[in-house]
Amino acid sequence: MRIERRLRQPRWLLVAVPAGSLVFAFFASGLVLLATGHDALSSYRQIIDAAFLNTGALGQTLTSATPLAFTGLAAAAAFRMRLFNIGAEGQLYIGAITAAATGLYLGGNRGPSAFVIAAMVVAGCAGGALWGLIPGVLRAFFKTNEIITSLMLNYVAAYLLTYLIFNTNSYWRETEGFNASVFPTAKNLPDSALWPGATIHVRGGIVLPLGAGIAVLVAVVLWVLYTRTRFGFEAQVLGDSPRAARYAGMRTRRKILAVMALSGAIAGLGGASQDGDFRHTLDADPNGLQRQYYGYTGIVVAALARYNPFAVVLVAFLIGGLQNAGNTLQGADFPSGLVGVMQGIILFSALGGELLVRYRFRLGRATEAAAPEPVA
Amino acid sequence: MIATEDDRRGADGAPPPPAVAMRGITKRFPGVLANDAVEFEAAAGEVHALLGENGAGKSTLSNILTGLYRPDDGEIFLDGRQVHFHSPRDALDAGICMVHQHFRLVEPFTVAENVVLGDHRGEGRTFRLRQRAIEGRVAELSKRYRLAVEPRARIWQLSLGEQQRVEILKALYREARILILDEPTAVLTPQEADLLFETLREMAAEGRTVIFISHKLHEVKAVADRVTVLRGGRSLGTVSAAEATPRSLAALMVGRELGGAGEARARAVGEAVLELEGVWTPGDRGEAAVRGASLAVAAGEIVAVAGVAGNGQRELAETIAGIRTPTEGSVRVDGKALRADPRAAIAARVAYVPEDRLGTGVAPSLSIASNLVLKSYRGPHSSRGPLLRLRRIRASAVELIHRYRIAAPGPAAPARLLSGGNLQKVVLAREFSGRPRLLVAASPTRGLDVGAIETVHAYLRDAAADGVAVLLISEDLDEILLLADRIAVMYEGAIVGETSRAEASVEELGLLMAGGHDPRAD
User: Fold this and answer.
1) Domains of chain B, residue spans
2) ipTM of this predicted complex?
3) Is the predicted pLDDT of residue A376 greater than 70, yes or no?
4) For testing the chain B interface, which of A221, A226, A229, A233 should be mutated: the one with the most B CBs within 10 Å?
């Protein structure tokens, strides 16, 4: 068997290979299920039911998918310029912190207020952007590796989040009431800061969180930005060849700062959506927000979607469904680790499928047979 | 049993079998037939040139002979005996050594260490014990073959010419019978090249076979006994170098008669467009790469900067293009001081064809259309506010591809798929579409085949005829003598001489390029 580089990549491959990878992943996961004593087919039916078909399943899936869409878009926005911002996790925490502060500060109890929600969105973006700008500045001016700095800042953000509620009487911490004296918690957000969802009346009502809508909007904006604007053009050139960008008179540093801020802002928006859509408080519990690994899973989502913003939304939905199913089915005969295993297999086969797009395998004998020894 | 017949003939006193014979060598790469039934024969005791344009299959053939590639078809005989190389080691064991264009040396190691490196006869392994003896032997070889190099010097301290000598010493140390050199003169001054030729002749006189890969006709004439010409992966036969003329060789190599040396069109030389005065520019490592260079180029004039690579030419070009910031001196275009900013240079209509085509001249993964607007995407033709005018960008790309005859699948194809010549056309098309006042072209024909070189030369001449000031930076003296009105020589960052073409002689230029007028040389 020989491996050859493809000179041309036919268009159908770009669809067929990911689809094929997915089929392969389910097949391989089926083997894992069989090996662990499960009936693969019925397990899959369970998963699909729990993720999409059962009453209330879609709503749950949207809850899991929305943050993944944000972190996936954040990763895609930066990775497109080959800026490897691994820090969506921390940027999401910081966005959650700033958005929660804004909601708490503005207050008001007469139901969701467009003004407060808009302010939270802005604050979440700003918080995430500032956190993303730290590795951005270091990269632009001191040429440090953004992978390391953004990753390390995730831990800083996580400890900060825990500190705000557990180790200090901060603005975010609830200090009144019986519960607060027993266990440290964050203040609940006022009514005005709760994001409304649109309810679709099928299957017992599916709530479309506002954040999900915003994520789709962000995807559209990103797509336009990267395919239709000078900004996106410059980012592409810079990602491909920084020397060519300099030669063409592009402002390299500014662009690095802008893209890191953009990526951070999108992740921060995910944090704001966690506050407003789902948690309704700044969840600092190390067993809560910090156990979800939205930022890291977002990288997987972006990679599977090949950094295409629309594909990110779709993949986030599917992975969200899988996670939701994992949570729902978790129990003695469906260990929660199985879903993680399946995610790993899916990523693995998708990346393997990439090879098929770029290379082609040829079966056939080597052109020359084993050479006979020269006779002296 | 295959080889015995030939062997017997050799023993009988009939003409001995050739040292190297390659029969019907075919090698395919995806989409390319690199070698198509190539026939090649070289005798012991001769310098045999392998002549061909870029992409003619010279490198593939030599990589097959050194065991790096396996041929899809064909046979190799050494001294009449068939061999099968499974790896480069087999070829080394058979006495075949190659001096690659890009040297295979370990920079922090000494010359002697590099010479024994990979020598598996055991000497490399016991180097520390026998260091003195090995260094002595290297010194002896370098003396005998006049390959002056200090055995204990570290590679990074050596010039490219010296590094090449180390590569040749390596081959001599291993007692190679067959030595292949891939475009060895590319990094040498004319004087160094002459010395190399002497060494090669001497090695051949001892009964070795020297295979000399080149696309420069005068070198082939100067050093080789016989010449095998390759074109498009096929061998077109072998001729005696003494009988061949440069013209006949060129015709074989290109497949057509070349036009005569370009007669310079009468050009009206206008006012100075570019004026450099005492420019000092730091290089990548902070050293002064350009040292007080002063130069002027007038409208309609082609001024060439000659010099061996690495003498500050790239830094000079980048200073003019605004990419590098000078620490002293002034760069003026059309009388106005130029800010050190690529945008300022673009606005002053300074076009720059960088020597690094694929990494700097274009963004390789981006489409041809994108690369064609790499410098003008900010302008009103290509964008409105923050938005790109994609339809217009595409339409003008289609037009430029047609006008410059760029062989490309279409405007959306990524630039990296293009051949060197077509890539250079993309760069030229873009630079000319900015209607330049000044064109800085750095090694614009390096690595291109003869046809593409002619095209590029024609564009440069046309530009000058249209009143563009052209600054040509090149290491190729033939090219410079063909195109330039005036020639400046750069050595160690300074302009060490300037002459008009009429008064220029290759010897004088070579001397200047090698620092012959350096007071330290006295």
Assistant:
1) 17-85+209-255, 272-349+436-521, 367-430
2) 0.83
3) no
4) A233
